[in-house]
From TrEMBL:
<dbReference type="GO" id="GO:0006400">
    <property type="term" value="P:tRNA modification"/>
</dbReference>
<dbReference type="GO" id="GO:0005829">
    <property type="term" value="C:cytosol"/>
</dbReference>
<feature type="short sequence motif" description="'HIGH' region">
    <location>
        <begin position="12"/>
        <end position="22"/>
    </location>
</feature>
<dbReference type="InterPro" id="IPR049940">
    <property type="entry name" value="GluQ/Sye"/>
</dbReference>
<dbReference type="GO" id="GO:0005524">
    <property type="term" value="F:ATP binding"/>
</dbReference>
<dbReference type="GO" id="GO:0004818">
    <property type="term" value="F:glutamate-tRNA ligase activity"/>
</dbReference>
<feature type="domain" description="Glutamyl/glutaminyl-tRNA synthetase class Ib catalytic">
    <location>
        <begin position="9"/>
        <end position="231"/>
    </location>
</feature>
<dbReference type="InterPro" id="IPR020058">
    <property type="entry name" value="Glu/Gln-tRNA-synth_Ib_cat-dom"/>
</dbReference>
<keyword id="KW-0648">Protein biosynthesis</keyword>
<feature type="binding site">
    <location>
        <position position="103"/>
    </location>
    <ligand>
        <name>Zn(2+)</name>
    </ligand>
</feature>
<keyword id="KW-0436">Ligase</keyword>
<feature type="binding site">
    <location>
        <begin position="9"/>
        <end position="13"/>
    </location>
    <ligand>
        <name>L-glutamate</name>
    </ligand>
</feature>
<feature type="binding site">
    <location>
        <position position="101"/>
    </location>
    <ligand>
        <name>Zn(2+)</name>
    </ligand>
</feature>
<feature type="short sequence motif" description="'KMSKS' region">
    <location>
        <begin position="228"/>
        <end position="232"/>
    </location>
</feature>
<feature type="binding site">
    <location>
        <position position="45"/>
    </location>
    <ligand>
        <name>L-glutamate</name>
    </ligand>
</feature>
<comment type="similarity">
    <text>Belongs to the class-I aminoacyl-tRNA synthetase family. GluQ subfamily.</text>
</comment>
<keyword id="KW-0862">Zinc</keyword>
């Protein structure tokens, strides 16, 4: 059996700017694809307009360009895929695989983030309700290329999860599965904060008859207080003038060994070096890396 051509992606959310943590994920996905002659696509996961920062989408693209990244094809906007998501939600409801949920956040307090099944057999009307997928009493597992074997029992560890929110916005878990399949992704390279989302996505892939890509979760870059870098914690945007130095720093975070002086090269030259020397097996098998240790 022939191996399909590599197709990977970087999928930022425009709720903030491109900071160092997102650069590490972008660089890992880019180098993993380009080192084998694969495609690297860019997708903007703009599913949650209330959380978006005005101008963040364009600023992310400018930052990526300043770092020398070149992507294949047009940028996909999830905000233009709502009809595809709704079609699948309707299908799952019609098959009895999903149901309406009217639970408020206050009602769900005290359950440790695991949905207790309150509305599972209530037959609520869909209008004005969240939509949850029914999960089986099964364990889902996979072997991550960096983090190794990972398992999760969906019913015990997660419970029925939301695929469309009460406000009508579509949930990440559904959209990412549909878009990865629609774009033909063979490999998903992303931050380790999404490691525990993968079993839910495996279940949706199985339920919808979609192919399962390979997964590689890189360590999440965290601040001294343990919070991940991101808009919520006022993580600064990357300075465009120091693109090569930031890329070299990201290479070191990924366990690569850039030579002395590479941080004085251009961003494009740094990416060329990274592509030709990429070794995914060098990525630290850790869920978190402290940013202050990478300066």
């Amino acid at each position: 059996m022939t191996t399909p051509p590599y197709i990977g992606r970087f999928a930022p959310t425009p709720s903030g700017y491109l900071h160092f943590g997102s650069l590490v994920a972008a660089l890992a996905s880019y180098l993993d694809a380009r080192s084998v002659g694969g495609q690297w696509l860019l997708r903007m996961e703009d599913l949650d307009p209330p959380r978006e920062i005005p101008g963040a989408r364009d600023e992310i693209l400018r930052s990526l360009e300043a770092c020398g990244f070149e992507w294949d094809g047009a940028v996909l906007l999830q905000s233009e895929r709502h009809n595809a998501y709704q079609e699948v939600v309707q299908h799952l409801l019609a098959q009895g695989l999903a149901y309406a949920c009217t639970c408020s956040r206050k009602q769900l307090e005290g359950h440790g983030g695991i949905y207790p099944g309150t509305c599972r057999n209530a037959n609520h009307a869909v209008a004005g309700a969240a939509i949850r997928i029914r999960v089986p009493e099964l364990e889902y597992h996979f072997t991550d290329r960096v983090q190794g074997f990972y398992r999760q029992h969906l019913a015990r560890d997660v419970g029925d999860f939301v695929i469309r929110r009460r406000d009508g916005l579509y949930a990440y878990q559904l959209a990412v599965v549909l878009d990865d399949a629609w774009q033909g992704m063979t490999d998903i390279v992303r931050g380790a904060d999404l490691l525990d989302s993968t079993p839910r996505q495996l279940y949706l892939q199985e339920l919808l008859g979609l192919p399962q890509p390979r997964y590689l979760h890189v360590p999440l870059i965290v601040q001294a207080d343990g919070n991940k870098l991101g808009k919520s914690f006022r993580s600064p945007a990357l300075p465009a003038a120091a693109a090569a130095a930031q890329l070299c720093r990201a290479l070191r975070a990924l366990g690569q060994q850039p030579p002395a002086g590479l941080d004085q090269a251009t961003a494009q030259e740094t990416l060329v070096w990274g592509t030709s020397h990429w070794q995914a097996e060098r990525i630290p098998r850790q869920l978190h890396l402290a940013e202050q240790q990478l300066r």
